[in-house]
Write a structure and sequence with these properties.
By secondary structure, the chain is an alpha/beta fold. It has one domain: Ribonuclease H-like superfamily/Ribonuclease H (Nucleotidyltransferase, domain 5, 2-Layer Sandwich), CATH 3.30.420. It contains 5 helices and 5 strands; from the N terminus they run βββαβαβααα. It has a 5-stranded mixed beta sheet. The chain is globular.
Length: 165
Amino acid sequence: MGIDPGIAITGYGLLEVEDSLSPRLIDCGCIRTSKREKVPDRLATIYRTISKIISKSDPQEVAIEEIFFSKNVKTALSVGQARGVIILAAYGEERKIFEYTPLQIKQVITGYGKAKKEQVKYMVEKFLHLDQSYSPDDITDAIAVALCHYYSRKLEKLSIVSNNG
């Protein structure tokens, strides 16, 4: 499971992975909260919804995008709070948690750490043979996090095998 955290919109993407096959998108979507709600209520919504999604879909591992440095301190703080409740939800469901920076995600998905959103979206669609685009971008970003995790773990396993063999 990949998650793109945010206080207004949190995207998620679930991949199914079988040993010999490429990953397959099985579910994706976003959690929206209203600016009219108080921050604790918004965070509670994110927490409860992520907990339900994890409980229902039963992913083995959860990958989440790390906070990037932002010029807007208020935005960075609210994203940090959302990340916190998401990590708590995954931890509460006893899942392994992995974190990736935006640079790492873009590097794995496009081969270039400073790729634009459109390039990431294009590559996500190509990797998963998607016949549709997902909106808002937070959904595609979450799928990219999941793909980044999949390919990072695959490379890690290959490295272990080659070092032992």
